[in-house]
Amino acid sequence: MKFLHLADLHLGKSIYGVSLIDNGDQIFWARRFLEKAAALKPDAVVIAGDVYDRSAPSGDAVMLLNYILTELEQMDIPVMLIAGNHDSGQRLSFAGSILAKRRIYIAGSVDAEITHVTVSDKDGSGEVTFWLVPYLFPAAAAQKLGDDSIGDYETAMRKLLERQGIDFSKRNVLVAHQNVTAGGREAGRGGSESMAGGVGQMDYRVFDGFDYVALGHIHASCSVGRKCDLPVLRCVIILMRRSSRPKDFCLWNLERREPGRILRRSRSRRCIRCGRSEDARKRFWRRRKTERGKWNI
User: Partner of 216 for a Cys bridge, out of 45, 81, 177, 229, CB 3.0 to 4.6 A?
Assistant: First the structure.
C-alpha cells in the first residue's frame, strides 16, 4: 500500500498582505503535486487537516481545493481528508455524501462513529482501513459520546477510539490533526503554527495498535515516539528564523505487517527568512511582484 501523506495546506493563506494564491505560489504547488501524483500512482492521498487557512475560506481557496480534488478524482485516486483546527468542519464537509460516491472522503466534524474507509492496494497485500478523525475537542467528544468524565484531549481520543471496536489484526491507518507528544515532550514545530506549551497534548501511545498514524498540525516533518508515526508539513512558503526540516508531502509504503517506510519526500518551492527589518520585508515583496504567476487552471 503506497499513499501520499500531506497536511497543513492552508489554502488561501496571506503573508504580510500578499495572498499565496494571487502570487501563484499555492497554484504552482498544486500543479506540481498533481503531476507527481499522476507519476507515482499512489493507492490513496491522505490530507491530515488544515486544508484552509481560516474557517471562512476565500472563494479562490475553495476553487483551488476543487481543482485539486477534481484532478485526483479523474486519476481514480481515493482521497482521505479531515478538518484541522483552522478549518470549519461543516464548510469543509459540504456535499460530503455526494463526494464519497466519487471516493473523496471528508471528515469535518467528530462523531461517535469515526468515518472509516477500507481500500485494497494494487499489489495484492490486502486491505487497509483509514480512520479519519477531524480535530478533536474534549467538549465535542464528551457530547457525542455522552460521557461527562472526558476533560482532556488524550482521554477524548482514547475513549473515542475504544468505542470503535477496531480489529488490529488487520492493517489500520489513523488520520488525525492533534498536538501529539512523546513522554510529555512536544515535537518541534515549524512554519507558522504556534501554540501555548502543553495545550491540547496527547501522548503518542494513545494510538497503539495502528500501523501508521498520519498526523498534521505541527508544521514539521518528524516522527513522534515511533519512527512510523510521521507528522508532515505541506506549506509552499516556510517562515523560519533558523534551519528547518525538509517540508512538503511524502510517499509512504505500508508493508503487509512490517513497519512502513518513506519512499519519497518532496521539498518546498522556497523558504523565506524573516528578520526584524520592515524595510527588508518590503523590499522582498517588491521583488516578488516581478515573479507573480497567473492562475490558469
Answer: 177
